[in-house]
Design a protein that fits this description.
Blueprint (H helix, E strand, L loop, with lengths): L2 H18 L8 H24 L2 H27 L13 H5 L1
Helix pairs in contact: 1-3, 2-3
Length: 100
Amino acid sequence: MSRRDGAAVARWVAERVQEVAPPGLGRWAPAWDLVEPPSMEFLDALARWEESGTVEDREAARAAAGDVVKAWREAAQLWEATGRSLKRTPAEPCPAEVAQ
């Protein structure tokens, strides 16, 4: 697999997440409890596919990508169920922002 293929899959995941996750959800810490494990698995699967280029690893990366989107959708549902909104939720830094 080429890096271009991996980038295309990552873009697809980002676009799907943007469709299912309301603005501000990434600042809500409980969302990360749901999305971090499948996100890490996706990154690992993507790296395996990049290294091997096999059909099996490609399918595993695609499945893991779907799991990431599903996790964000579930986080969004939980967020809505708890009555959260961008206006009512204090800004919590994204883990990526904290790591900088």
